TrEMBL record:
The lineage of its organism: Bacteria, Bacillati, Actinomycetota, Actinomycetes, Kitasatosporales. Residues 72-201 form the N-acetylmuramoyl-L-alanine amidase domain. This is N-acetylmuramoyl-L-alanine amidase. Keywords: Cell wall biogenesis/degradation, Hydrolase. The keyword ATP-binding does not apply. SMART domains: Ami_2. It is an enzyme of class 3 (hydrolase). The keyword Cell wall biogenesis/degradation applies. It comes from the Bacteria. Its EC number is 3.5.1.28. It catalyses: Hydrolyzes the link between N-acetylmuramoyl residues and L-amino acid residues in certain cell-wall glycopeptides. It holds the Pfam family Amidase_2.
Amino acid sequence: MTELGNKRSKPRSRTRRAVLFGGLGVVAAGAVAGRDEIGRAWWLIPGVAKPRKEGELDHAGASWTSASPANWRMADRPDDYRVDRIVVHVTQGSFEGSVKAFQNPFHRASAHYMVRGDGHVEQLVREMDVAFHAANRSMNERSIGIEHVGFVDRPQDFTDAMYAASARLAADVCRRYDIPVDRTHLVGHSEVPGADHTDPGPHWDWDRYIRLVREALAAGPS
Ligand SMILES: [Zn+2]
C-alpha cells in the first residue's frame, strides 16, 4: 500500500535540479512570471528532462494507465537520482480500486507498477519519475515501487502467476539500473525507515521471490 511521500520525510540536500529550479525561479519572478510560466520554462532547460510520450513504457510486458500527476513527481532518473532499490507493496484493495486511487489527484500516492494475480502488469508512473509509494522521500527518489494486488492476510492472493510476472519485472529493473538482487536492494514497504505500513506482510515469500528474480535475470532480457 502506498501513501504520501512528502509529509514525514526530512529535508534533502539541494540537488542539481533544486539549484537549477531555484535559480530559474528567481529569474522568472524578476520577470513577473506566474507559477505556470515557471513550470513551462522548466521544460526549456536543456539536458534536464528526457523526452516523454504519453503511453510510453519501461517494461516490455506492461500496459499503461497514467496515474494523476499530483501523485508523483517529475524527475530525470537515473541522471538526477540513482535508482538502486525496489520496494514491494501489497495494494490492500482490488486492481480497479487501486488504479482509480492512483488516478485520483487527492490520493497523493502512486507506484510505478501494479502486478495482478493473473500476471498482468500495469505501469502507472514512468521509471524516470518519482512515485509517492514509500512514505519516505529519499526512498521514493531512489526506488521503483511495485504493487501486488491483494491483501496481506490472504496468502492465496499471492499466486504463481503474480510471483513470476513480478520477478520478470524486477529482474528487468535490476538489469537496467544494475541493482544487485538481494534483500538489501529489494525491500518491503514495511522495511522502509519510518514506514507504518505492514505490506507485503508475512505471507510474501521473499526467498521464492529473490530466487525467481535471479532466475529471470540469468535468463536474460525477455
Ligand atoms: Zn505499501
